[in-house]
Structure prediction request, 940 residues.
Amino acid sequence: MPLYATGFNAWNQLQFRVAASDAQVAEPDDLSSFACVLPDERVRRVRAALSYTEVVLDNGETRFAGMVPVVHQQLRSADELTYTALAEAANGTVVVHDGNDSLKQYPSVHHLLSHAAPSPVVFANHPAATQTVAYAAGFAALDPPTGRVWTWGDERYAACLGREPSDDSPAAAPRLLADLVDVPTGPVAKLAASPSGYLLAALTAGGDLYCWGDAARCGPALRSLHLDENDGAPVPVVIADATDTDGGGDAEKDVADVGVGDAHVLVLTADGEVYVLGDNSNGQLGLGPGVATATEWTRVELERVLEPGERVTSVVAGPRNSFLVVEKENKAMS
Amino acid sequence: MSTARNKLRAQCLEAADQISAECAAVLAGVGHDGRSSSSSSANRTATTKPDLDSQLAGCGEPLVQLLGRQAAQVLRLFGGGSGRPTPGQVSGQEGGPWPGPAPKAGDKAVKLLLQRLDDLLSLSYARFYAYLFAKLPACWRLLYTDAAVLRFAVLYLSSSWPVREQGVGPTAADAEEGEAKEKADADAERQLREMIKTLDLAVILAGGAGERRGRRWIDAAFGLLEEDWASRRSNGGRSAGETDGEERRPKRPRASRPGATAAANNPWASTPSFSSYEPFTPPVGHPIPRVQAPSFEAFQAYLSHREGSNPGPLPLVLTALIDDWPARTTRPWCKPAYLLSRTFGGRRLVPVELGRSYVDDGWGQQILPFGEFLEEHIVRATEGRVPAAGDPPSLEPKSPRTTGYLAQHPLLSHLPALRADILIPDLCYTSPPRLPRPSTATTTSGRTSAEAPQDEDDPDPDPDPHLNAWLGPPGTITPLHTDPYHNLLAQVVGRKYVRLYAPWVGRPASEGGIGDGGARAMRARGREGGVEMGNTSSVDLGVVEGWDRMAEAEDGDQEEGWEDEFRRLPYLDCILEEGDVLYIPVGWWHYVRGLSVSFSVSFWWN
Prediction:
């Protein structure tokens, strides 16, 4: 499963094979189109942080590209599980699961590492399988079997909570995002957000995508998500191929995967296409040089990117870059 | 080649050299425990240099490294050598030749450098929003400022106007005619504006953070840039003629020294003043007493004196206190031409509040060139209006133009050229009484300002007063609110109406004290959208008094009849005339309304 990538590359985080001499001399430029960055590996998982990319392979090995902050190195060597599940928001706050039934929130990653005062805030009754994602000023947590989503964070960005904060439902503590409880296409199966962004996305088991977040902070490039049209509650996102007029109209596509960056989104549809939306100032949409933004969903021309017989199996967004995990068909290539 | 140009070039390269070295030091200082040297007390004692800038470490190694690499790249591209220049190369400022052909703005390496600096600016700026204002770690403001300094350096060193003058002799320049000359001028102007914007945003957004660079560096850079620009203009952009230090700003009328009183000597006298158009004048119901400039001792005695059962001193209008300010005489703030001359021809950026009042829907802030603010929001808002007969009634629909108000901005530290035009009154160094703590302490300002400490208990350990400037057209409104400071509001230009309610308003004298500080009687707001608004009243005084129309349907949960009750509350008010200074004791609720074009300076002290 090769890995393709595009976008922000200031620390060579898209270059898994950089000659040491090159890294010394040239300032690395961004990639403006998807390019294969790990050709011969079977990729299981990708972590796309601001300054580095960590890829876990099927054989359990890990590949790093870019520059890993020292605190992340330390956390990883101290407790790999905690590191893997770490949610770190741009306001410094971090949340980890304690392995039992609680989420622990620390004022900073330094507090987590050093156990310095103050002691963490503990939120109980969150099962061990809980997946937590950070946005710039808070968090969302998903309990995979039930598909329930909890949100909490800075009250100033109430729209990122997807719920109305009140005395009964305070902003600062995890509370159920009620609007995502009984959605038509089944429980929420995945959450996506960028730890320095203000957009959150939830994908249902049945392939429907919902987004919510702070419209002002997300900026004009994401305006077509209409985040402010539902009083801050999640809005359904329709991906349709406007150029495909066969069959007499825009067919709404099921969504198979989603990645959310600081100001861009990429989506894998059930029929294997990749659509992108938002800011492209670092090339994160892979639409080529000279495209500043995509204000409407735009199909990535995978036929120009992938080798014959390759198909995208999942998508990942870093804050300012994007990744495609690709599978080669078992059949011998024609 | 002008001296200013060499100095500014050297200053840019020196900054890049410092940033490069500081970033390298931060990266080298990451200890075995992984904590950076700035956050480890054990290492800090070993560090010889108690350098604020090392706080950059708080941004994490990747961003520090990225910043350091861009600084090194500036030196590589513009330093005239292949790598970091020797110290002599950087500090040898006078008369050195412009090194080789400098890379141009369009070069690939320059574009990438600017892209990375923009990345650093947007990444650090994003933190300004993610954190609560008061909790933003200083490192993000430092990172923003350093990235802005480097961005300015790249723009300046790669711009066409200094290089063109150096490389192209008068003969070639003479051939430049008509359209080509116009285009070159427009390009130069555009580049200049971009340079100014880069540094002004660092001051306005990041407070010009940093000891070695920061505001001091930025002020110096602006001085040299203006000098260099003036020499370019005076030479028609054609030759690299020498610029005499005495003729730095040839386009300005030479201002008389402060103290020279002969109006005839004032070169600004013949330029137009702001309009005195005043569309509406509210009646004064309970005038604040007026006294002529009291002595320090007399004012101190006034502050300490308790009249009757009042828990604190009362407001007072002080006259003849600022008559000797240059801003009111030889450097006239009532003259747009003078103000433009002090703001790089109006190019310097200022933050402007757009909308009637900061509690209204649709209110927002915009950063725009001072000249544009002056033209759009002040001159054009009042031109063609005669103050005499035919005043429109106050309830006539306002012009569709949004009110723009340069409010609560530390303009005088932002634009030091204006700072010399005023004198801090001695009275700001008196020791005023502290306000007894309200039973519900909510004193955080609804406005936020880099200059306004937010700590509620001890808002100001600083002995020097905080200066803010307030410049706006007729009709600006600051809604009823309190500040955690004593305030001297000096009216430099135009007229303002001010109404004040005591912090013990609505509380029987028999109860003494200030209770909730007037929060109930003033119908104080609460927390709104995660922002504490308890220092601001929900009462729109202009609407209650019938001076303004209701912006839109007010929320219906107000009980009937509250307005009558509110109108019965005791208050003091006044119209500040030019030259008046209003003393507003700490904790007093005040409503401020610009009547004409108005320019005021407030001094907050404790």
